């Protein structure tokens, strides 16, 4: 993990490659040399960065013109807005798009990280077939029939046997790199899961919220009695990454679907602050306005249409 911790990094590709190698080694049985195609690696890169860009809105750099190529690829094919579906559901309807993105990542994002992700000396993790360019500053992508790495059995064994410890180091270093450019809570938990964290049911909060308050939608204030109702995260769950009653409101389906994972109009801030004070939810010592402003800074969109009266 010194490769990840000590290296000079202008993007996070080495973190992504380290995660791939760790997860691959942990899942696969020990045997002879493993042949891993670039397509397999590129596919996992897409999954890792799709969650960072489309779910969590991580900023990879303050300078827009210096964003990693993989983020440009994701934005080209998937846009820049939050995507409510899971990775699997989103691409189940866009398999052709996914394959095009994987091919782009294979061609444009792996040529330098694969040859450079090696310890110093002769104890290499894997064999590759990249050659240095004439300037000796960049590597060239190998021919199509050589686009794979050969993971050595001893490397596989080392990564598998030390999976838990190495994963913790990786998550810490990746989060430490991203915290320079991101205003987001629970950064380590988000990096650790990268989409694997499943949202819990909010049914247990319905009774509390309905008993304490009038049975009406927080946003449009129409009654939800004898109607379907939703529990909404006022600050988007993808940013806050937890379920806490100070951030939960009763919503009708129409308002909840309209808001999705965006921020409500700023006029709603005073409403939720008043609500939290009235029902003693401020005991949790959360400054909703501060979270709201930081969520905006992180790149989450704010609805312009009035869903609060």
Poorly predicted spans: none
Q: Give the % helix.
A: 40-55%
Q: Bin the strand percentage.
A: 5-15%
Radius of gyration: 23 Å
Provide the spatial order of strands within the biggest beta sheet: 1-5-2
How would you spell out the order of helices and strands?
HHEHHHHHEEEEHHHHEHEHHH
How would you describe the shape?
Answer: elongated
> What is the total tally of β strands?
7
Q: Tell me the distance between the termini.
A: 53 Å
User: Helical element count?
Assistant: 15
Largest sheet: 3 strands, antiparallel
The secondary-structure class comes to mainly alpha
Mean pLDDT: 87
* Number of structurally distinct domains: 2
Give structural attributes.
mainly alpha; 309 residues; 48% helix; 7 strands; 3-stranded antiparallel β-sheet
Could you walk me through the main structural features you see in this protein, from its secondary elements to its overall organization?
The protein is mainly alpha-helical and 309 residues long. It has two domains: 2-193, no CATH class; 203-297, no CATH class. 48% of the residues lie in helices and 7% in strands. It is built from 15 helices and seven strands. Strands 1-5-2 form a three-stranded antiparallel beta sheet. A two-stranded antiparallel ribbon has the order 3-4. A hairpin with a 6-residue loop joins strand 3 and strand 4. The longest helix is centred in the N-terminal third of the chain and has 18 residues, at 38-55. The radius of gyration is 23 Å and the shape is elongated. The mean pLDDT is 87.
